[in-house]
Design goal:
The protein is of the alpha+beta class. The protein is 53% helix and 18% strand. It has helices spanning 9-16, 20-29, 34-79, 83-93, and strands at 101-106, 110-119, 129-138.
């Protein structure tokens, strides 16, 4: 069957179809916005992983600070004259925002200091952490 201007029906429908790249663009047009939806769904997981990494870093920092404070407190209490010097040295060695609790225990031969620091929680569901470290030094006469 021929249409106007001597074209067959088959040729006329082929001529009206968009070319290959336009067909692909039309198919992809239906996928618009899918990537933002996927990202939006994955974003809470990424945030949780990031906050967990920050929390682990804070706990590691708290462990390091508690150990340093315990060593400083034990050293000061064993050399400089008692628990008061140990408490002052232990608190000076730890960052103030960790709220250190320094407890030196001076014996006849050794002095042991215990430092507990309070690490704030970044992830709301898990709360805060207390980290405790001990250090023992020989008591000087």
């Amino acid at each position: 069957m021929t249409g106007r201007r001597g074209m067959t029906w088959h040729r006329a429908t082929i001529a009206l179809r968009p070319s290959g790249r336009f067909r692909a663009a039309r198919r992809l047009r239906g996928d618009r916005g899918v990537s933002i939806l996927e990202f939006t769904g994955f974003l809470p997981i990424l945030l949780l992983i990031g906050m967990a990494a920050i929390q682990l870093g804070l706990i590691g920092y708290g462990v390091s600070q508690a150990g340093s404070g315990a060593r400083a407190a034990a050293r000061a209490a064993s050399q400089e004259g008692g628990p008061a010097a140990g408490i002052a040295a232990g608190q000076a060695a730890v960052s103030g925002w960790l709220d250190p609790d320094v407890t030196p225990d001076q014996g006849a031969e050794t002095t042991t200091a215990t430092v507990t620091v309070h690490v704030p929680g970044v992830i709301p569901l898990f709360g805060d952490y207390d980290v405790t470290r001990h250090a023992t030094m020989p008591t000087d006469d």
